[in-house]
Write a structure and sequence with these properties.
The chain has helices at about 20-30, 65-75, 115-130, 145, 205-210; strands at about 15-20, 35-40, 45-50, 50-55, 55-65, 75-90, 100-110, 150-165, 180-185. By secondary structure, the protein is of the alpha+beta class. The longest helix is centred in the middle third of the chain and has 15 residues, at about 115-130. It is globular, with a radius of gyration of 21 Å. Bound molecules: flavin-adenine dinucleotide.
């Protein structure tokens, strides 16, 4: 996939840009939430939403009554971002504080998914992406539920990745200041599952929930 005008990467910190598909897909496959930017009535709008990826296509799903999905069903240009914050960088000087992150910015045109097989594949890919193992366990969607759901496909035609993955960058003259400097790493952790007792059955917490990691 060639990089073109929008996703060139800036001249500012060019080393932080990476255009490898592997890096892009690793960021996308670890994430759960993206931000979708589009223009509505000449105004920029950005909506947070869950997503999944199959090859170079991002899938979004929502209600048939959603204004956002009705807009996307017309086939509009979208900008989609996914970001992972990995650490706070604490330098000895205020202006050298920073963050370690991995982010990707994608561009593409939305397309309403109508093909039965693609709808099925996208629905399963969504579940497998968010909760691997759940597809085999939970009740399958009914035709009525599928009819009430819109799936949008966005094939990525331009994209960039930007990462900061290094330590403190202090100026030489500040290194001996009596100020603690270092990295404060951050990661998504999953807590103890809480069972819903809505039904009469007692069902064990499945391993894919107990061992859930991203
Ligand atoms: C973590 C997360 C995951 C989500 N996953 C899904 C999903 O898989 N499918 C889905 O359909 N929706 C999802 N949503 C909800 C999504 O953000 C939108 O609210 C919804 O898709 C838009 O519906 P709409 O057509 O009513 O919005 P629109 O009518 O297009 O929105 C109108 C206005 O409502 C406001 N608005 C809309 N959404 C939000 C928001 N989330 N926060 C604050 N203001 C808002 C904005 O000002 C917007 O201009 C998710 C939200 C979050 C935070």
């Amino acid at each position: 996939m060639k990089k073109t005008s929008l996703a060139q990467g800036s001249r500012y910190y060019p080393k932080r840009y990476d255009f490898s598909i592997e890096k892009r897909n690793a960021i996308l496959d670890e994430g759960l939430i993206c931000h979708v930017g589009f223009v509505r009535d000449s105004n920029p709008v950005v909506i947070p939403i869950a997503y999944c990826r199959i090859d170079d296509t991002i899938y979004l799903h929502g209600s048939v009554g959603s204004h956002f999905f009705m807009d996307m069903a017309k086939g509009i240009r979208l900008c989609i971002t996914v970001t992972h914050l990995d650490a706070l960088i604490m330098a000895r000087s205020i202006m050298n504080h920073s963050m370690n992150y991995r982010s990707t910015v994608l561009f593409g045109t939305s397309r309403l998914v109508t093909d039965e097989k693609e709808l099925q594949d996208a629905t399963q890919a969504f579940v497998d992406h968010v909760i691997p193992g759940r597809w085999e366990d939970a009740r399958q969607p009914t035709p009525k539920e599928m009819q009430k759901t819109t799936f949008i496909a966005v094939t990525i035609d331009e994209w960039s990745v930007k990462c900061r993955e290094h330590g403190v960058g202090d100026d030489e003259g500040d290194l001996d200041l009596p100020v603690w400097a270092g990295i404060l790493p951050v990661g998504l952790t999953w807590q103890e599952p809480v069972t819903d007792h809505g039904g009469s059955r007692e069902v064990e917490v499945p391993d894919y929930v107990l061992n859930y990691r991203r």
